[in-house]
Design brief:
With about 150 residues, the chain is of the alpha+beta class. The chain is built from one helix and ten strands, in the order H-E-E-E-E-E-E-E-E-E-E. Strands 3, 5, 6, 8, 9 and 10 form a six-stranded mixed beta sheet that branches.
Length: about 150
């Protein structure tokens, strides 16, 4: 009888361990699938004028851009498209958010030429959203001033 009891306990232990292992494998697989669907990381965003000079923030945190400034976003991970948004500065102007431009990836980069006529105002905030299918990641917001050269 003691031997039969030991065999039953051993059998139950093996079944429990097998069930736990297959359950763990299921979660590992789901986790890996979820990681594959993540939007890409935005590694770097630069603004460059027509002559190739990188435009940087001044002391107040403002980036002065010009007509035909090139915006380059370098990303890491799978990406399908990106969109550039702008909202004029002021108190809660979020309802005035506008899509400035959009495009497809060129390897690990998105390159956009910002045109003066695409903006509703000359002062505001600009950001980019990079997508992997329907999942997007928003960049930081850049305070910009659009100036004629």
């Amino acid at each position: 009888m003691k031997t039969l009891k030991k065999i039953v306990i051993l059998g139950i232990t093996i079944l429990t361990l097998t069930a736990c292992k297959s359950s763990d494998d299921k979660y590992v697989t789901l986790y890996k699938q979820l990681l594959d669907k993540q939007p890409p990381a935005i590694e770097k965003i630069t603004f460059e004028n027509k002559s190739g000079k990188i435009l940087t923030e001044d002391e107040s945190g403002l980036i002065t851009i010009y007509n035909n400034t090139e915006l380059t976003a370098t990303v890491k991970g799978d990406s399908t498209e990106a969109e550039v948004y702008f909202v004029p500065s002021g108190n809660d102007n979020s309802e005035y958010k506008q899509l400035v431009t959009s495009g497809k990836a060129n390897h690990d980069k998105f390159i956009f030429t910002l045109k003066e006529e695409e903006f509703s105002d000359s002062l505001g905030y600009l950001w980019i959203v990079v997508y992997n299918n329907e999942l997007g990641r928003k960049s930081e917001e850049f305070k910009i001033s659009l100036t004629e050269e």
